[in-house]
């Protein structure tokens, strides 16, 4: 099967660059190659394009242009926000609050800081993946300098109570960072209404190229510089700017935000069709994540008695790309930390399937997938010793 006919349901992993975005950035690889720091005309054009993109990104989240700093992606933004604040405020305190379900770009950064004398509280979440605001309040200490809670989870799609968390952070004079990589372009965000001080985003999750992202830093927030060198990004993040990436990020965010309502309506229809069809027709399947406070394009379902990898391989044979929280696909011996945090036992976490939809997907693709998934689950269960045992035990009673 060629790539054109493939069904791509892994948009939380990455997305193709949108045609409109590609067209916009193309000249910046060839004719418009100027270094934005130089003083001749082609340099001015790069400079102007970059400032336009900064406006586009800023207005997507209700920020000021001067509060947007371009980075090389979501991981870099997360690292900068957390290490930068930790370093700048080390005299004030060394306690950070985050959650157990963050992306590894946040979790591993916090673990790194723990080795350097910082204290980190990892808040638990409920069965839906929601952080409790009361637990957050209880975790606050006089030496707490930063709260980092993701806007929406990349595995189970749960949308966190960001505005409530922001309010608490502001009342206590503590900086609030949110990893909004999965939320930007799908959820309406206003950094002022939500009292967000730092916000991470990434281009390749919303139709811009890989290797570009941004960190919103509220004016006045104390944060150490990330890359020392030239004066780019006000000297905070030195290095000649990735103009094609920056132009692409601006265009992609502007498009995504302008389409948010119509696109979400379409995605929710497809998402709910999949969830309803599977949970009603396939026994021992359950939805992971919150049923309503959920990203419009996220489906995450656990199938008992089977392994995620098996499902992914058989789906791949049918031309469908998806993802799982099972151990083999998470790159470690343990299944997804997110699925374990919402209380799934190991075996149910292993049998999880994540589908993440985007503007490129259609209801026709959804129906094709629904036709294929039942027989695939059935086939894997027929080969599963766990399932055999379950049937035997059930017959006995
Ligand atoms: C993808 C992702 C990241 C990392 O972004 P990159 O641009 O790939 O570095 C961080 N956080 C979340 C929630 C993500 O989904």
How would you characterize the overall build of this protein?
The chain has helices at 19-25, 41-60, 74-88, 104-115, 133-139, 162-171, 243-258, 260-281, 308-317, 327-330, 337-341, 346-350, 363-382, 385-396, and strands at 7-8, 68-71, 95-99, 119-123, 144-148, 175-179, 198-202, 213-217, 285-287, 298-303, 320-321, 352-356. The chain is an alpha/beta fold and 397 residues long. The mean pLDDT is 96. The chain has a 7-stranded mixed sheet with strand order 2-8-7-6-5-3-4, sandwiched between helices. The protein has a 3-stranded antiparallel sheet with strand order 9-10-12. Strands 1-11 form a two-stranded parallel sheet. The protein folds into 2 domains: 7-12 and 260-384, Aspartate Aminotransferase, domain 1, CATH 3.90.1150.10; 19-256, 3-Layer(aba) Sandwich (Aspartate Aminotransferase, domain 2), CATH 3.40.640. Bound molecules: pyridoxal-5'-phosphate (PLP).
Summarize the structure.
The protein has 397 residues and is of the alpha/beta class.
List keywords for this structure.
alpha/beta; Aspartate Aminotransferase, domain 1; three-stranded antiparallel sheet; 14 helices; binds pyridoxal-5'-phosphate
Query: Could you say how many structural domains there are in total?
Result: 2
Approximate strand percentage: 5-15%
Helix tally equals 14
What is the mean predicted local confidence, pLDDT? 96
The spatial strand order of the largest sheet comes to 2-8-7-6-5-3-4
Ligands bound, unique: pyridoxal-5'-phosphate
Poorly predicted sequence stretches spanning 5 or more consecutive residues: none
> CATH top level of the largest domain?
Alpha Beta
Overall 3D form: globular
Can you say what the CATH homologous superfamily of the largest domain is?
Type I PLP-dependent aspartate aminotransferase-like (Major domain)
Architecture of the largest domain, CATH level 2? 3-Layer(aba) Sandwich
Q: Termini distance?
A: 47 Å
SSE succession: EHHEHEHEHEHEEEHHEEHEHHHEHH
């Amino acid at each position: 099967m060629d790539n054109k006919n493939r069904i791509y349901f892994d948009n939380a992993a990455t997305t193709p660059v949108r045609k409109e975005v590609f067209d916009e950035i193309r000249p910046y690889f060839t004719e418009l190659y100027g270094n934005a720091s130089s003083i001749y005309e082609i340099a001015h054009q790069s400079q102007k394009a970059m400032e336009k993109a900064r406006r586009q990104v800023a207005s997507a989240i209700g920020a000021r242009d001067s509060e947007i700093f371009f980075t090389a992606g979501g991981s870099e933004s997360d690292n900068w926000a957390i290490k930068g604040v930790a370093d700048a405020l080390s005299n004030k305190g060394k306690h950070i609050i985050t959650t157990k379900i963050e992306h590894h770009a946040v979790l591993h950064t916090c673990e790194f800081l723990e080795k350097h004398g910082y204290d980190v509280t990892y808040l638990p979440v409920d069965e839906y993946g929601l952080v409790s605001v009361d637990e957050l309040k209880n975790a606050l200490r006089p030496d707490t300098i930063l709260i980092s809670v993701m806007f929406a989870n990349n595995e189970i799609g749960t949308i966190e109570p960001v505005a409530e968390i922001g309010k608490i952070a502001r009342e206590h004079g503590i900086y609030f960072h949110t990893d909004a990589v999965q939320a930007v372009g799908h959820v309406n965000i206003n950094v002022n209404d939500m009292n967000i001080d730092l916000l991470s985003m990434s281009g390749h999750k919303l139709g811009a190229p890989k290797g570009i992202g941004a960190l919103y830093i509220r004016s006045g927030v104390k944060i150490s510089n990330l890359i020392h060198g030239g004066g780019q990004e006000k000297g905070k993040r030195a290095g000649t700017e990735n103009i094609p990436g920056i132009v692409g990020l601006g265009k992609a965010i502007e498009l995504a935000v302008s389409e948010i309502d119509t696109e979400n309506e379409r995605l929710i229809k497809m998402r709910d069709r999949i969830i309803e069809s599977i949970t009603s027709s396939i026994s021992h399947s359950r939805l992971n994540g919150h049923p309503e406070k959920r990203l419009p394009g996220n489906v995450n379902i656990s199938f008992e008695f089977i392994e995620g990898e098996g499902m992914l391989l058989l789906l791949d044979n049918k031309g469908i790309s998806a993802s799982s929280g099972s151990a083999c696909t998470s790159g470690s011996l343990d299944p997804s930390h997110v699925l374990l945090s919402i209380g799934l036992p190991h075996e149910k976490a292993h049998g999880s399937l994540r589908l993440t939809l985007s503007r490129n997907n259609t209801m026709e693709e959804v129906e094709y997938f629904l036709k294929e998934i039942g027989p695939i689950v059935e086939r894997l269960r027929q080969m599963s010793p766990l399932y055999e045992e379950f049937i035997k035990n059930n017959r006995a009673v």
